[in-house]
Amino acid sequence: MAPEKETKNNGKGAKGKNSKRKRPITSDAVMKKKKAEEKVPELVEGSESDSEPEPSSLEKGDAAMEWIISPTSLQDFYKTYWEKKPLHIKRTERNYFKDVFSTKGLEKILREQRVLYGKHMDITSYDGERETHNPAGRVYPAVMWDYFNNGASIRMINPQYFSNSVWRLCATLQEHFQCMVGANVYLTPPGTQGFAPHWDDVEVFMMQLEGKKHWRLYDPDHKLPRYSSKNLNQEDLKEPILEVEMEPGDLIYMPRGTIHQGHCLEGEHSLHITLSAYQLNSWTDLLEKLLPAALAVASQEDVEFRQGLPRNYLSCLGAVHSENTSQERIDFIGKLKGLMGKLFKHAPVDAAVDQLGKRLMYDALPPALELGEKCCTVNGDGEKWNSKKNCVVNRVEIDPDTGVRLVRSTACRMVQEEDGIKVYYSTENTREYHEAEEQWLEVDSDLAPAIDHLITSYPAWTKVEDLPVEDLESRMQVVGDLWEKGILITSEPLEAKYDDP
Fold it and tell me: What is the model's pTM?
């Protein structure tokens, strides 16, 4: 008998032929239940009629982005503004962003959750020089408000860790940008400025939530930088390219590198949230993965890359020989250009892209599941303890005709590593950046086509029995393993098979 194929996790127990599978194979039909749907842009939960198909996470991501930049279209935004110049959207609807975050919500977080100075919150001020006033330990409202009343600004770092609405918005936008989306919240007292002029290394979407703030934006000294700037001096700034007052409902988009500073107007506080994307997500970052890999392949496959350097190359190249015009130098440079040209033929582009996808699985927020989705995933379906019966109930099964798909387009990435095929996934990440270790499953090569199909066919539903794997038992196994990690969602809640009447 051939050995059973297996998927293994990262050191926390592997599933093999001696494992006790709790989801046996069956061909029974599953129950039909409706699904609730969340309206992402409005950040509230609702439902759709059964006649309307449920949108995919990619469609929801696009809808969230359209909502943020409305009335500018996605096409116009990417053609005219993205990575090119700022966009200011003035709205008359002051409550446009009201469900995203609020000062009242901040107060509630501080009273109910453990927020730490430095890790989750900074107390800052700026009067010609930026200062940080963080005490040690937990943030208590009375202490924070005392700083605020004395002119200090409040920055909440990664509010998505504490706020469901911010988490839902950032996680949804990840589907649009296909990269990590983060956030910060800024609360500024009237008539003050909390930060020095600076630029950021991310694409910024600044959403005014409460009050007013006067903003000045300047042309970048260094377009699309890979890293944020230090604090800049006022005397070094040129004339602003944009100077506006932001009011509730307004938006500013800033490409990476845009120098900016904001001053709260007298009379009322300012609260805004910045959403950020595309940190270290450039061609340079891909080439950092690609070029070393290409050179490794080229040196193995092409003898020309292994040939020795000319004996006299040190005598005609180097800084002291930079003006040398000898034929030896010309020939050396020509040879090097030829090798650089040949290098791309050996470039493992897909493997390098997979490494960036693997990084995303570690960086990404976990999916913010809707109520209707939870009942079709391991997060809400499956075995439960019934205290009245004093036993486990809802013993569910995955059937051959069960429809499955990825829970999100960014749920997993299959990568060919040196030691085998691994499926990296984001579904067990926490809302705090890199709090969880990198998560992966090791996959037998015979099962890889099933996972390949699930990834490439998203958002289409696939019946388990239709997966491109040789035998039904293997199809059931790979689906069961992925379902148990929250990577898959079923088209309907699973049917309980063995519950007592």
Answer: 0.88
